[in-house]
Structures are given as structure tokens and as C-alpha cells.
UniProtKB/TrEMBL annotation:
<dbReference type="GO" id="GO:0030245">
    <property type="term" value="P:cellulose catabolic process"/>
</dbReference>
<dbReference type="InterPro" id="IPR004197">
    <property type="entry name" value="Cellulase_Ig-like"/>
</dbReference>
<keyword id="KW-0119">Carbohydrate metabolism</keyword>
<dbReference type="InterPro" id="IPR001701">
    <property type="entry name" value="Glyco_hydro_9"/>
</dbReference>
<dbReference type="GO" id="GO:0008810">
    <property type="term" value="F:cellulase activity"/>
</dbReference>
<feature type="domain" description="Cellulase Ig-like">
    <location>
        <begin position="6"/>
        <end position="88"/>
    </location>
</feature>
<feature type="active site">
    <location>
        <position position="569"/>
    </location>
</feature>
<dbReference type="InterPro" id="IPR012341">
    <property type="entry name" value="6hp_glycosidase-like_sf"/>
</dbReference>
<feature type="region of interest" description="Disordered">
    <location>
        <begin position="592"/>
        <end position="614"/>
    </location>
</feature>
<comment type="similarity">
    <text>Belongs to the glycosyl hydrolase 9 (cellulase E) family.</text>
</comment>
<keyword id="KW-0136">Cellulose degradation</keyword>
<feature type="active site">
    <location>
        <position position="560"/>
    </location>
</feature>
<dbReference type="InterPro" id="IPR013783">
    <property type="entry name" value="Ig-like_fold"/>
</dbReference>
<feature type="compositionally biased region" description="Basic and acidic residues">
    <location>
        <begin position="603"/>
        <end position="614"/>
    </location>
</feature>
<dbReference type="InterPro" id="IPR033126">
    <property type="entry name" value="Glyco_hydro_9_Asp/Glu_AS"/>
</dbReference>
<feature type="domain" description="Glycoside hydrolase family 9">
    <location>
        <begin position="98"/>
        <end position="581"/>
    </location>
</feature>
<dbReference type="Pfam" id="PF00759">
    <property type="entry name" value="Glyco_hydro_9"/>
</dbReference>
Length: 614
């Protein structure tokens, strides 16, 4: 797949909000402005102008111009933009363009559920499947999973990554979400995914848009019992995370197992119910334990109005996990990719101070207790600390200090430093707006080394969350416009002219790496469901398919191939980032003045932001 496969006029293939910014990118070697025309669905010319040359974009490897047509506010479908002899894909102008994406991006999680049959009536025709890992042959199942035997985590040169660790117990770890396109379940990736689903609902409550996320809003089995469906979905993973705790009386008691996975990778395609591999619990880790502490504390706060007993159980679990992590502060997850055919992603993490910040943040926001505020102030990622909370590369499961800062800034609390925390988020958003202005394709993602990382689309989306938080804090439309510009990139305004979300746009990806959404390999299987975001361009090109693109400009290091796991996988943490942003966008309506009624002004004027860290 190359840039030449798409129209040279690159647009958001879903469309543009009526009163939002409207920008496209034209691929051309013209050095002077060129004329453009916008036609409506009937073919009539409704706007004209000239492009703005931007020269060579090294991230895309293309010479480009930018076209702005904000003046167009007439709702309609089938708009096309013409310039330099090229015509764009069709798109809409109107209100509520992201309501469907909000729903579908969350329903994707239902399809990732382990331990339950997936109902075709809910996920869609062709998407029903038998329950996976419920101790029905050929599954070994997750009902009584043993610890990885000693010596099973030994590298070819004899290094035991777990230092001889094993355990003589089994755990029932049924349920939860399959992490990505494989059968593994990982606490640290589940943590950020749960946090963002809980967070998008908590944000909707703050802004008065939660009715759209109420009971019956999603296609999940629990609909109709009075609890918002997105909270039911988050609970499915929370209950699994609670099952991953090491029992009393065992070494590392109270810590949380890092993952449960197959002994070996199963081939593509393999449905979860057909997975014959033995399943093992991997060594617990401090990072996984702090993830449970964070999301259990957040879940206790968000779920309390709907299930007080479960909320109390979550808070007890959060406190216990936080204390266990303090007892075992440096049990680190190693890089299990060094093992031969390890059968699971490593999710290795040598820095858990950010996880510690996040768990202290959520426990403070839920309890208001001084001990957690004191831990916040002592953390290296604290406001004004020696490590910056925000990175140009964005945040993800292994860099959660920025997410913690967003939570501390937007969730109401009595923290004396809250106004400065909020100001630091706005400062981080200002830096992203400056980065975005340098990008002719409109994305607020400019890695320090110029190389796009694994899951770059998830990183883009998480940068959009920072901008959205700044919009909530300040009500300054610059940040809203920056979010909308970044979404344009994901939905078609990029070097390849692709929409990276299945089912949205004219040229959407449809072959994300998955062992059961593998239509490309077996016509009896479906493609990934609508609303599934691809990982996106990755400069490392680490899989055998994308390896042919090594050395290409960053935006062109992508191929929509089911085997291209390094650039085109689906994962719960990228979809949770998409769901969070889609929920924010859906709350904008037509992008006009009535948007986001719950947003409040910044606590302090700009001059009090001087010296706030990034």
C-alpha cells in the first residue's frame, strides 16, 4: 500500500463538524498556490479558494499544500474537494458525526471478552463465537491456571528471567478481555484500557453528556438492568483483574500476576475456543499491582452510585494492592521476548514510579486521604518533579504519568495544588498545539527522534486526550480545533489516505492482526468489527510483512495486512484511547457554542502557569 493508491486530496473521510475547523492536505509538487473547489452532493460548487504550499513533509515523504474551508457550514453528505486535477474521497459536513464511533469503539470490547460466548445479535452478523478458555476441550481453560513452572522463563543462554520463581497454586482467572489479536490477558494493558472507559464516563458526567452513555446505549448482554453499559463493560475486566491477585500465604502475597497466557503462540487463524495451548500465570509484578490499585480506586468512585457493595470491594482491593506494592516496590516484569516462542507479549517495564503516581492519584481522588496526597508530592513525576509527566511521544500503558495528571486536573478534589496541576495540563496542550502547527497533515505527534513508535495511532489519540482536557479546563476552542485536526489524520488525512478505523471512511483498514477476526485468511471468519483502530505506522517495521518498508518515511511505515502485527494489530488500549476521544467528540454536537455544557473556566489566570512543568 503506497501513497499513490489514494486520491492526492486527503480529507477526513467521515467528515467535519458544522462549526469546527475543516482542513485537507493536497499532495503536489507545485511550488505556488493552486486553486481548489468544494462541490456538494449535487455537484454544485459551494466554495473556492487557493491552497497554501507547505513544502516537503519528511514524516510523510511528500510535497504538500494545505487547504482550509472553514467557511462551509451547510450540513450535507457527499462533499468532494477538487484541486490540482485531483478529487478527494466524499465526506460529510454536519452535527453528531461521531456518535456512531463512540458506540462502536466501545462495543469492540465486548468482542474481546474471554470466558463467554459472543452473541451475533449484539456484535453483528458473522461475529458470534463460542466462549474461549472455559475448560472445554480443546481448551485447557482459565478455571484453574497454574503458575509458570520454574525454568520455563529461561533464555537460550541460560538466564532465568524470573529468578527461579514459580508457585504451587492455581487461580480461577476466567473472564476479562483478550488483549489484542492473541489469547493473552495482561493486567498492565487492561489497566489503562479500563481507566479510559471509566474516565470517558466520568468525564461525560462532569460535562452533562452522560445520558448518551446510559443503560441501553451499547450492545452488551447486561443492557436493561439500570447500569450504564460502559460501566458494565469496564466491570468485566475489573472482576478479572481482582482474580489475578496472589493468595495469602504465598510468596508475593497481595501482588498481582502480570499476565496469563499460552505457553506458545498459536497460529493465525485460531478461535479462542479452539486454542489447545497450556495456560500459565506469569510472575507477579509491582506494575500490575499498582495498575489494579489505580483502576480499582477509580472504579470504586465511578461505580459507587450503581453498586455500593462492589465499589466497597474495589476500594478494599485498591488499598490492599497499594500496600502490597509498597512492600514489594521493585518486582519488575522482564522482556519475555528474549524467550524462544514465548507465547505472549512481554509488557516489560523497568520504571514503576509513574504507576505509583497513578495509583496514588486515584486513591486520593476517591478517598481524599492525606497519605496518598503525600505520596503524590514525593513522586519523581510530581508537579515540578525531576521527571516530566508529559512526553512529545505521548502516553500509553507504560507511561501513565500524563494520564494521572489529566485525572488529577479534571476530577474534582481538595488538592491545594490543583490549580497548578490544571495549568500544567494546559501548558502541555499548548506544546502539542505548537507541534501540530508544524505538521501539514494536522497530527499533534512529533516524536523527538522523528520516528513513529509501535502503536503510533494510540499515541496520537492520547495526545488528543491532553488537548481535550485543556478544552474542558479552559473552554478555549483552540484545543477543540486541535483535537478535530488530529482526528482528521486518523480518518484519512494522512500520507496513505487511509482511515485507520474499520468501518469508518471510504478507504478503511480491514485486516488488523487478529487470530479470530481473520477474514483475509479464512472467508468464514469476519474482519475486525466496526470501530476497531489499527496500531498505525511504526518506523521499526518489526514484522516480516512491514519489514519491506524499513527506512521509509514514518507515515508510510504501514500496511493493512493481517500478518503485519508490528503496524496493524488491534489492542484494547488503543481502542480505549479511541473510545475516550470519540466520546469527547460526540459531546461536541455540531461544534457550536452550546457544546460541552459542563466545562468550566480555568482556576487561575495564565500568569500563574509560569514554571509549571510539562
Amino acid at each position: 500500500m503506497t501513497s499513490e493508491d489514494a486520491p492526492r486530496v486527503r480529507v477526513n473521510q467521515v467528515g467535519y463538524l458544522t462549526h469546527g475547523p475543516k482542513t485537507a492536505t493536497l499532495v503536489t509538487d507545485a511550488t505556488e498556490p493552486v486553486a481548489w473547489r468544494l462541490r456538494d452532493g449535487d455537484g454544485a460548487v459551494v466554495a473556492e479558494g487557493e491552497s497554501v504550499p507547505r513544502g516537503h513533509d519528511p514524516s510523510a515523504g511528500l510535497d504538500v499544500h494545505v487547504i482550509a474551508f472553514d467557511v462551509v457550514v451547510a450540513p450535507g453528505n457527499g462533499y468532494v474537494l477538487e484541486a490540482d486535477g485531483a478529487t478527494s474521497d466524499p465526506f460529510a459536513v454536519g452535527a453528531d458525526l461521531y456518535d456512531d464511533l463512540r458506540v462502536e469503539s466501545i462495543v469492540v470490547f465486548y468482542g474481546q471478552r474471554s470466558g463467554v460466548a459472543i452473541e451475533e445479535d449484539l456484535l453483528g452478523p458473522g461475529y458470534g463465537r463460542a466462549a474461549g478458555h472455559v475448560d472445554v476441550a480443546p481448551n485447557r481453560g482459565d478455571g484453574a491456571v497454574p503458575c509458570l513452572p520454574a525454568g520455563h522463563a529461561t533464555t537460550a543462554d541460560g538466564v532465568d528471567l524470573y529468578d527461579g520463581w514459580t508457585g504451587d497454586y492455581t487461580l480461577d482467572v476466567t473472564g476479562g478481555w483478550y488483549d489484542a489479536g492473541d489469547q493473552g490477558k495482561y493486567v498492565v494493558n487492561g489497566g489503562i484500557a479500563v481507566a479510559q472507559l471509566l474516565g470517558l464516563y466520568e468525564r461525560a458526567v462532569r460535562t452533562g453528556t452522560d445520558d448518551a452513555l446510559g443503560d441501553g446505549s451499547l450492545r452488551v448482554p447486561e443492557r436493561g438492568h439500570g447500569v450504564p453499559d460502559v460501566l458494565d463493560e469496564a466491570r468485566w475486566e475489573l472482576e478479572w483483574m481482582l482474580r489475578m491477585v496472589v493468595p495469602d500465604g504465598q510468596p508475593y502475597a497481595g501482588l498481582v500476576h502480570h499476565k496469563v497466557s499460552d505457553e506458545r503462540w498459536v497460529p493465525l487463524p485460531t478461535l479462542p475456543a479452539d486454542d489447545p495451548q497450556p495456560r500459565y500465570l506469569h510472575r507477579p509484578s509491582t506494575a500490575a499491582t499498582l495498575n489494579l490499585a489505580a483502576v480499582a480506586a477509580q472504579g470504586a468512585r465511578v461505580l459507587a452510585p450503581h453498586d455500593a457493595a462492589f465499589a466497597e470491594r474495589l476500594l478494599d482491593a485498591a488499598r490492599a494492592a497499594y500496600d502490597a506494592a509498597a512492600t514489594h516496590p521493585v518486582v519488575l516484569a522482564p522482556d519475555t521476548n528474549t524467550l524462544e516462542n514465548a507465547g505472549s507479549g512481554p509488557y516489560d517495564d523497568l520504571d514503576v514510579d509513574d504507576d505509583r503516581l497513578w495509583s496514588a492519584t486515584e486513591l486520593y481522588l476517591t478517598t481524599g486521604e492525606d497519605r496518598y496526597a503525600a505520596d503524590l508530592r514525593a513522586n519523581p513525576y510530581r508537579l515540578g518533579g525531576e521527571r516530566p509527566a508529559f512526553r512529545p511521544e505521548g502516553f500509553d500503558w507504560n507511561h501513565v504519568s500524563a494520564w494521572a495528571r489529566l485525572q488529577l486536573a479534571t476530577v474534582e478534589s481538595a488538592l491545594p495544588e490543583r490549580s497548578l496541576v490544571r495549568a500544567s495540563v494546559v501548558d502541555a496542550a499548548d506544546a502539542l498545539v505548537e507541534q501540530q502547527a508544524t505538521q501539514p497533515f494536522g497530527l499533534p505527534y512529533v516524536p523527538s527522534n522523528g520516528r513513529y513508535d509501535w502503536g503510533s495511532n494510540g499515541l496520537v489519540l492520547n495526545n488528543l486526550a491532553i488537548l481535550a482536557a485543556a478544552h474542558e479546563i479552559t473552554r478555549d476552542d483552540r484545543y477543540r480545533d486541535a483535537v478535530l485536526g488530529g482526528v482528521d489524520y486518523l480518518l484519512g488525512r494522512n500520507a496513505l489516505g487511509l482511515s485507520y478505523v474499520t468501518g469508518f471512511g471510504t478507504r478503511d483498514v480491514r485486516n488488523q492482526h487478529s487470530r479470530w477476526y481473520a477474514h483475509a485468511l479464512d472467508p468464514d471468519l469476519p474482519p475486525p468489527p466496526r470501530g476497531t483502530v489499527s496500531g498505525g505506522p511504526n518506523s521499526d517495521c518489526p514484522d516480516p510483512v512491514s519489514a519491506a518498508l524499513a527506512g521509509s518515511p514514518a507515515q508510510q511505515c504501514f500496511v493493512d495486512d493481517v500478518h503485519a502485527y508490528g503496524v496493524n494489530e488491534m489492542t484494547i488500549n488503543w481502542n480505549s484511547a479511541l473510545a475516550w476521544v470519540a466520546s469527547y467528540l460526540a459531546g461536541l454536537g455540531d461544534g457550536g457554542p452550546a457544546r460541552d455544557p459542563g466545562a468550566v473556566a480555568a482556576d487561575k489566570p495564565d500568569e500563574e502557569r509560569v514554571g509549571a512543568d510539562g
